[in-house]
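Slide 14.
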Amino acid sequence: MCTVDARRMTVTGTGSESTGTPVSDKIFWHRYLPFYELYFERLADAAWVMEYGVDRGASIAYLSRRFEHAQVVGCDIIEPRPEWPRSPRISYATVDQGSRSSLAGLLAGFPGPYDLVIEDGSHRPEHQANCLVATLCHVRGGGLYILEDLHTSHPEYRPRERSTRDRVNCYHLLLAFEHLRARRVELTDDVAQSLSRKSLFTETEVRDLYARIASVALYRRAALPLRCFRCGSDEFAYATLRCRCGTWLMRGVDSLAAVLTIREGGRPARSLLLSDVRRL
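Slide 15: predicted structure.
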């Protein structure tokens, strides 16, 4: 059983699977989980879950408890750390999101297809694009791909690297896909070409992604966070919308995520066990 204490910002549970792990900012800052739960209900029998970005391991601990029968794979550019959650169902792999060859090498042998993939890594637009292109074909039909902290690809987000600031990224692409799906309009040649011009995606990638994604659901936090990400306090100055430490709680571009449902009948990439996955 999994219990989340947002006040103490820890996850506790029974058994040997890392108790007292710090809670992910998915819960106390971004408040993503109530939105996710609308979709997680369909994954009751999830067998494989993957997340890019381990950090302190809070999200991995949560996922291993939320999907109690699933194998959970945590991917990060750093080597696995002793304090990360430990379980026979948790594996760690080292990968560089900035290298498509690194991603391809990782996914060529990983178990799958996946029921759920969460991209919560570096938050750099080009890395988000790389992971989306490389990983989506490894998610089963009806499964979910969640792109977190999509606000870093928003045109108004600062800082943004000058080299990618004016290029089409995941934010543009997913807004376009959602708009087309909502209007029940297919992807035209003109739109595909416009999305691949001065873009992080090729035209072939745009077309392939559109064919695989059945729906796009966007979330943006409109309420106050439960606690401050910087100091951990829940004592807020409501009149100024700041934490007592001075952190601005409702900045214009923050806490944006997209839940992608994969089209049924797709052909996810065939996966085998990866012999060099680091397992704790």
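Speaker note: The chain has eight helices and 13 strands.
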